[in-house]
Amino acid sequence: MSVVSQTGPDADAGTAILRAEGLTRVFGTGAGQVHALKGVDLTVAPGELLVVRGPSGSGKTTLLNLLGGLDHPTSGRVWLSEAEVTAMREREVLAARQRRIGYVFQSFGLVPVLSAAENVEVPLRLRRTPAAERGERVRAALEAVGLAGHARQRPYELSGGQQQRVGIARALVAEPEVLIADEPTGQLDSATAAVVMDLIRDVVHERGVAAVVSTHDPILMERADRVVELHDGTLAAGG
Ligand SMILES: Nc1ncnc2c1ncn2[C@@H]1O[C@H](COP(=O)(O)OP(=O)(O)OP(=O)(O)O)[C@@H](O)[C@H]1O
């Protein structure tokens, strides 16, 4: 693991899958403006697990939402390989999200009435993957996260760690280039969190995915290839 500060676009920007330049996000609230993110530059390479740390309110979720095309910056730009996400129409952003990005959420985000396999199948249905192909891909994704025997169980029949592994299978089943995970272990005990983070690290390295994971947890930073730290919306040296 190396810990670095990034103050400008990287020299390796040419090989980056995910790149952000000058990302700024200002929220208007009843109490005035909140400058959640202030000119953040960042690149993430294929097969790299980047951890974003920082205190509560430092801008981690804001940054991940912008990198994942879930929110639009007040100023600044985001690229997925050569394609500028921030210049796309809403419909193109949606297509890029469905085809190229997988998301993992702190609260798992599973549909309670669907089985583990049906939850994992959702991104394939959204991409209109043929039914014949979907079954095999769901099976392989569940097997990759060690849940081959739990395909028919509903989320409430699974432990928190198992639910998050379903969440990871769902994020990866459509073979995205980028994985965005916002506090993926925030609801898990530390032993389960370590297992889930090991899994994320292994799939990122094996599949060459560019991953951005936010966390408060120092244990998880040990699994990172690189750590950056947010303070009041600004990237600083990690620790
Ligand atoms: N939709 C919004 N409207 C107004 N202010 C917002 C909004 N979203 C975030 N903020 C503010 O932006 C700042 C950064 O919030 P953000 O959620 O990105 O921090 P965070 O580092 O993810 O925090 P935590 O670790 O607690 O999840 C905070 O001051 C927050 O109150």
Give a description of the structure:
There is one protein chain. The protein is an alpha/beta fold and 239 residues long. The protein has a single domain (2-236), classed as Rossmann fold, CATH 3.40.50.300. It has helices at 60-67, 90-100, 116-126, 131-144, 160-172, 190-207, 218-221, and strands at residues 2-3, 18-29, 32-44, 49-53, 75-80, 83-84, 101-105, 178-182, 210-214, 226-231, 234-236. The structure holds adenosine-5'-triphosphate (ATP). The site of adenosine-5'-triphosphate (ATP) has 12 residues, from strand 2, strand 3 and helix 1.
Would you summarize the structure shown here?
Residues 18-239 form the ABC transporter domain. The protein is of the alpha/beta class.
Based on the model shown, name its key terms.
7 helices, seven-stranded mixed beta sheet, Rossmann fold, binds adenosine-5'-triphosphate, single chain, 239 residues
Structural class by helix and strand composition: alpha/beta
Bin the helical content.
25-40%
Within CATH, the superfamily carries the name: P-loop containing nucleotide triphosphate hydrolases
What Rg do the Cα atoms give?
Answer: 17 Å
Give the domain tally.
Answer: 1
- Total number of helical segments? 7
Annotated CATH architecture:
3-Layer(aba) Sandwich
- Major sheet attributes: 7 strands, mixed
Percent of residues in beta strands = 25-35%
Task: Give the SSE layout.
Blueprint: E1 2-3, E2 18-29, E3 32-44, E4 49-53, H1 60-67, E5 75-80, E6 83-84, H2 90-100, E7 101-105, H3 116-126, H4 131-144, H5 160-172, E8 178-182, H6 190-207, E9 210-214, H7 218-221, E10 226-231, E11 234-236
Parallel strand pairs: 1-10, 4-9, 4-10, 7-8, 8-9
Antiparallel strand pairs: 2-3, 2-5, 5-6, 10-11
Helix pairs in contact: 3-4, 3-5, 4-5, 5-6
